[in-house]
Amino acid sequence: EIPNSLTSIGNGAFRACTSLTNVTIPNSVTSIGDYAFYECTSLTSIKIPDSVTEIEDGAFMGCTGLTSVTIPNSVTSIGRSAFSGCKGLTNVEIPNSVTSIGSSAFYGCKGLTSVTIPDSVTSIGGSAFYECTGLTSVTIGNSVTSIGISAFYNTGYYNNENNWENGVLYIGQYLIDVKTISGSYKIKEGTLCIGRSAFRDCTSLTSVTIPNSVTSIGSSAFYGCTSLTSVTIPDSVTSIGIYAFCDCTSLTNIEIPNSVMSIGGSAFWGCTSLTNVTIPDSVTSIGNYAFYYCTSLTNVTIPDSVTSIGNYAFYYCTSLTSITILDSVTSIGFKAFCDCENLENIIFSGTVEQWNAIDKGDGWNAYIPATKVVCLDGEVEL
Predict the structure, then answer these.
(1) Of the N and C termini of the chain, which has fewer Cβ atoms inside 10 Å?
(2) Residue 254: what pLDDT?
(3) In what order do the strands lie in the sheet with 239-240?
(4) Burial code of 163-179, b = ≥16 C-beta within 10 A, e = fewer?
(5) How confident is the model at residue 300, as a pLDDT?
């Protein structure tokens, strides 16, 4: 029994106390450290007091005898591997205070049969419920915008062929995974999120229609779809994840709607057939390597909503001949236009003074082939 004077349990505090069968945590405790009860294999139940706001990484990892756990409404996040390997856990109730479930949080909890993820949760980490082989019932709330790779892989739900629709797995309003698909595919109406790596390496997919219910396209969602020539992104989408269309070598044109606020790092890396891209006024940031090695891209206009251009954002865009940057941009990342060998000039809508004030990363002059920047009131030699 932990005394009421205690406010925190440190990292690894009870690590591998294999004979510990019961512990009472008082309301004075506000934090339970990483791996605090790691491999306490005889611990059968745990009640977390409502003074705790976060279950840290690996807090109860490997507690194989744990059959029940009470998570209070005070908890806002469940850390990575928090209950990983708790194979005796048969039931867990995730309160509607939780906003994120970390990667591998319930990995290998083979005794879990059902889980309800409340509307408060916005992100589910990779492998969160991986190898929960007894998990046959899953309900996901409507606020999730990010589902990590293999989040539900090898669960009872995933392994049930009856849950797959022509090679595509949905859980409620979320597209989780694709086994095999070719030609054109229309994502089901009402879908809210395309999970991470959902269509990855679907090399026979030629076109995809995304309904206007989708709000986010997960990381690596269409990575390596080398036959994909056409995709329509609806104006419901607000974010395009990292590597979302990486190595889609047949993609010739992409229209990004006004709803998108950020273009993730490496989102269009290696789209060698992409000749034109329109970046709307809604976008505020372009991630690192976003258009890296887009060798057919000839022209880009950066709208006045963008304030930062990431490192290597347009690296090796060898067909890029001109680029217009508006005076809203205050930061240009390292080697952002490196090896754009046909880029002659940059058009900047602001003044020479404003251009000189922009943080353009280390070694800017050494890595841009353009010879000058044309501003409103003069030119800057590079």
Answers:
(1) N
(2) 86
(3) 164-165, 168-171, 174-178, 193-194, 216-217, 239-240, 262-263, 285-286, 308-309, 331-332
(4) bbeeebbbbebbbbbbe
(5) 79
Give the Cα separation of 256 and 279 in Å (integer): 6
pLDDT in tens, 102-156: 999 999 999 999 999 999 999 999 999 999 999 999 999 999 988 999 999 999 9
Q: DSSP state, 307?
A: -
Other Cβ atoms closer than 10 A to 3: 8
pTM comes to 0.87
Task: Please report where in the chains the tokens 């709307």 appear, as a residue.
Answer: 280
Cα 328 to the center of its chain, rounded Å? 27
Residue 196 CB neighbour total at 10 angstroms: 27
Give 1's pLDDT tier (boundaries 50, 70, 90).
confident
Question: Rounded to an integer, what distance in angstroms lies between the CA atom of residue 380 and that of residue 353?
Answer: 10
Q: CA 152, CA 53: separation in Å to the nearest integer? A: 25
Contact predicate 290/263, CB 8 Å = yes
The number of angstroms, rounded, from the C-alpha of 357 to the middle of its chain's C-alpha atoms is 32
Alpha-carbon distance values, 15 to 9, 12, 53, 113, 123 (Å): 11, 5, 21, 28, 28
Please, which residues bridge with residue 69 across strands? 46, 92
